[in-house]
Amino acid sequence: MTRNFPLGFHIGAATVFAFILPFVVPSEVLATEILIFALAAIGCNLLLGYTGLLSFGQALFFGAGAYFAGLMSIHLPFGLFTVLLISTIAGAAIAVIVGFFSIRRAGIYFVMLTLAFGQLGYYIAFLAEPLTGGEDGLLSVVRPSLTIPFIAKFDFATNTSFYYVTAVTFVMAFTLLQRLVDSPLGSVLRAIKQNEARAEAIGYQVRLYKIAVFAFSGAVTSLSGALYALMLNFAPLSNIDIETSEVILFMCVLGGLGSLYGSILGAVIFLLASDFFAELWPRWMLLLGLMLVMIMLYMPGGLWKSVCSLFARLSGTDDTVKKGGANG
Amino acid sequence: MIYFLMGVGLTIIFGMMHFVNFAHGIYYAIGAYICYQFIVWTGSFWIGLLLTPIVVGLLAYVIERVLVRRLYKMDHAVQILITIGVMLIIREGILIVWGTVPKPVSIPPLLSGVVFFGEFAYPKYRLFIVAVAAFIALALWYLLDKTRFGIMVRAGSENPKMVSLLGHDIDRLFAFTFVLGVALAGVAGALISPIRGADAFMGVEALGIAFVVVVIGGMGSFTGALIGGLIVGLVQSFTSGFWPQGTNVMIYSVMALIILLRPNGLFGRA
User: Which of A105, A285, A286 lies closest to B263 in CB terms?
Assistant: First the structure.
């Protein structure tokens, strides 16, 4: 069990990270992308890492958020804050519906149901061409502006300004979710992951908790999808396809389950690697597949755990390493 | 019937070994490519159709020995993620070997053209697929239900440890079952190749459908896979009559409906 750091620590860490990131990575767009997918990976981690629910339909929430944000920005005169808020709530609503049906089954059936819902969403988006642009995607999405009455109006047309929008959203969402997993609710989720029957027997309404975690996961994933559409000025159909689900899942597993910081690390590594390799070798996904197999076989804790235990070993403070050392 | 072939391979592997194979779709794709390759070499679709399952089976055997056998005792989530890794590796391998442009496969001359049933014209090749799949279904049923091997497989799915204690080599049995299931996906790919060509990304869609078939029918049930495949095929051809673009939406909706009414699938064990 990890120690709970005070909330201020997490706010500080996330802020520092978001502040440094654009100076370290090659471009601001990439930095924006990293924060966006870090949020999506966190959404996945809430389900898989904390509650033990492997969802294959994360792209449904991601794509839905992108479409909601895109459509609102094109057709409705809402400001940035409203667009992001409504996308988030809509994502949570969809997730509650998907969750409600999916958690009727456990294990492998659950995975397949989430996959089926994801595919269902994909084909609906594909068919609803007048609304979503079908195969071409939703074009000419405009970034809504943020108006603070009587004071100022920001339009975020440049990549730099949009990075800071993303960064602020990221820090807020991250802090809230970190607070969530440190809360009693988070403990119940971990209890469900460890032993569902026991959690039920103690008297927790496991179903309700699972639906709740779906809502949070859907909300944050949808939020990240909304940011992504605004970043690209475009909501492609591929946002909602199974490959996006896989990518999100992969970042989550790569970084490590059960730690929100792990998800951030996963997104950083994945996007930097894909940025680096994509130009060198178009078939770099081959390496990705190999990496996935290796991590699952030899590093089930993901990179974050390995990094943690490495630091612990160097400083000689952590006793988990001395006891087992098997996680590394 | 193609759906049945995909679904039954998946369900055999799961029912027997409790192993979730998310790479199943890619074996279907590689079946199509290997069939294409044999046609290029020999000029005969028939040789391709016959040899494809053997080659795919060999590939499956190697993968089973090197990787899959270590995973049987692991969590489903781990199996899923690792087989996705395998899927990526094979898919990129396909793209390296055969390039990114899908390969067309022509219908063998013997089977081109249509057959008339009164008013309705039906392509000969599709009838051929139905016939082959029906034959395979029969053969599988015989294999699983009537032979010594089938008894061992079914016993193994109930209690692998007991089968092993009774002196049967469960390790080899598992390997064979895996190869069989994967080879079925390879046959399905080879059969479909004249209709839709060989495409590295055809596996994703097929995997989705295979899961629907298996979920409808009930995981691990042979009859379930057959009925599930039939239902999916019927829904598809029925929907394409009045809403051609909406077939996939309908298929997934039917699946959601069945899950709600019968959570274990039509023929599933609890």
Answer: A105
